[in-house]
Design goal:
With 250 residues, the protein is α+β, with helices and mostly antiparallel strands. The chain has three domains: 2-72, Alpha-Beta Plaits (2-Layer Sandwich), CATH 3.30.70.870; 107-186, 2-Layer Sandwich (Alpha-Beta Plaits), CATH 3.30.70.240; 188-250, Elongation factor 4, C-terminal domain (Alpha-Beta Plaits). It is built from five helices and 14 strands. Strands 5, 6, 7, 8, 9 and 10 form a six-stranded antiparallel beta sheet that branches. Helix 1 packs across helix 2. The two termini are 38 Å apart.
Length: 250
């Protein structure tokens, strides 16, 4: 499952969104739905889908069949958050509900991926998998012109654009399949975007700690493009888990 928040947009009200989701889920029981609230976007729904294609089709049907337009948040995967009191909770983000608990570790879902491809594309695909924190398990040649790669990959690294990039670097010839693997203890942190000392909750993201500065900087650059420069806003990116400021700009 991948999860995304759906919030009313372009004149759509909450009751219209609720009606559209209710009608669609009557015919698609695989979608999980729960109400959530965002300080930035108001009331909405947290929905779970069977992949990005399923999510995109659901959004299109909301717009085409019920005239409902939505803002959706970045797709996330379910993590297991382990606290020092011994409790474990599966959720897509460490929410304010658990702010009084001291986080011990984050376990993330993994997959075992098989990629079958023409041998001339092996180099770029190995580079792609390494960039996505993949662990190579197998590299063999099926024939003189076709290779097989097996990788253990974090699910968070493949749910958004991995398949599109894979098809691009292999001219569409790669075959990509994967199956679930056990959760793995990872060096993950939660990054929050903060404007004038207020968290923008819908922009919170889970990343590996080795990427905190690059992702934080990219997030800040994106925010600055959409903020009115006549407003004297301080943009700061912080890690909610440790509270350490990664960078601050005006």
């Amino acid at each position: 499952m991948v999860y995304s928040g759906l919030y009313p947009a372009d004149g759509t009200n909450m009751s219209e969104l609720e009606h559209g989701i209710e009608k669609l889920t009557c015919n698609d029981s695989s979608v999980s739905v729960e109400i959530e609230s965002s300080a930035a976007l108001g009331r909405g729904f947290r929905c779970g889908f069977l992949g990005l294609l399923h999510m995109d089709v659901f959004h299109q049907r909301l717009a085409q069949e019920y005239g409902v337009n939505v803002h959706n948040t970045m797709p996330t995967v379910p993590y297991i958050f382990e606290f020092h009191d011994g409790s474990k909770v599966e959720m897509h983000m460490c929410t304010e509900r658990y702010k009084d608990k001291k986080l011990k570790a984050i376990w993330e879902p993994m997959v075992i991926a098989k990629i079958i491809l023409p041998s001339e594309y092996v180099g770029p695909v190995i580079t792609l998998c390494a960039e996505r924190e993949g662990e190579q398990l197998q590299f063999s040649f099926i024939t003189s012109k076709k290779a097989l790669l097996r990788y253990r990959l974090p699910l968070r690294q493949i749910v958004v654009d991995f398949n599109d990039i894979l098809k691009s670097v292999t001219s569409g010839y790669a075959i990509f399949i994967y199956e679930e693997a056990e959760h793995q203890l990872s060096g993950l942190i939660k990054l929050d975007a903060i404007l004038n000392n207020q968290k923008i909750d819908v922009m919170a993201t889970i990343i590996h700690k080795s990427r905190e500065e690059s992702v934080g900087g990219s997030m800040m650059d994106m925010l600055k493009k959409f903020i009115n420069r006549s407003l004297d806003n301080t943009i700061s990116i912080t890690e909610a888990i440790s509270g350490r400021v990664v960078s601050t700009q005006r």
